[in-house]
Amino acid sequence: MNDGLGQVAIVHDYLNQQGGAERVVLEMSDMWPHAPVYTSLYRRDSTFARFASRDVRTTLLDRIPVDRNFRMLFPIYPLAFRALGKLDADIVISSSTGWAHAVRTSERAFHVVYCHAPARWLWGEYLAAPVGRMLLAPAVGAWKRWDAAAARRPDLYIANSFTTKRRIAAVYGRDAEVVYPPVNVERFTPSPRGERLLTVARLVGHKRIDLLVDAATKAGLGLDVVGGGPALADLRARAGPTVEFHGELEDAAVTDLLERCRAYCTPGWEDFGIAPVEAQAAGKPVIAFARGGVLETVEEDISGVFFRRQDVDSLIDAIKRSDNLETPPEQIAELAARFSAARFREALTEAISSAVRGRSALEDRALPGLRPVQ
Known about the structure:
Blueprint: E1 8-12, H1 20-31, E2 37-39, E3 56-58, H2 77-82, E4 86-87, E5 91-96, E6 104-105, E7 110-115, H3 130-152, E8 156-159, H4 162-172, E9 177-178, E10 197-200, H5 209-219, E11 223-226, H6 232-238, E12 243-247, H7 251-260, E13 263-266, H8 274-281, E14 286-289, H9 294-297, E15 304-307, H10 312-323, H11 329-336, H12 341-357
Parallel strand pairs: 1-2, 1-5, 2-3, 4-6, 5-7, 7-8, 8-9, 10-11, 10-13, 11-12, 13-14, 14-15
Helix pairs in contact: 5-10, 8-11
């Protein structure tokens, strides 16, 4: 396609969740609304409804009747993306947490990877369980070689945080630009603090929602948990009467909870973490484990507090310290403004344009194609 903006194609691992990575893809699709979105599988009812109006193109994996168990298909994702052939566009932008970066492109294409994280399942975090390591050990070496080879091919790597930038360098040996993800900070009104703590997350083990539930139960603190996932049953079983589980909610309901909460809690860690920024946009302090993206998005003792040991007592102490913060909601919200969607659009376009200018073979044709819809 060529609509005067140039040819852009977008690639994403899978579209069957409502997470931060999918919000990034939606923003890219808004920037280049005529760009096709390639993905391994697409589940309209499990991801954001706005994708229904986009040109989503899937692989053969889309025909396999899986949704929540999509990770079980991981041995064949490389083949699925290879089966797409060589994508032919001026610019191919891959939004990747482990698969999309491996898509093949034509010789003329300038391939950009927006990396949310090098594959966690492959580089240690999701294989922490002894049984997982034992079962997958024979194949992990081959997958790592495949992943590293795929990471060498793109023209430009962009990281979603400095935390991710360091991991890309360690795992792939590549330097990366940093462009923070877009956060819809404008949808929030900075508001006074309420009575209950809040967390919004996929309920999986590494998010450490169990730690937060245990802390709230021990201290008798009101806690609202938004999200679904395989850990839900266990979390319900260990939760006391002050903990309420809301399941997955629409954005409007999440906005309301953020604007009325006492503080937002991040007991695990993320490479960036959109929800803590949203909480600050609502004027609320963040209580977070001191690792990952929160170190870049939260100003300690101003817009939040950190705890440095992942145990119940450390988290309870951090909650108490957060109550002593006197930063006005409006000031906390101002700190979140630097992560707006407008900033993302500007920074992403400039990062790609600058890299294209450095590649003389593309210099004469690609820059007009990068101009996003305003």
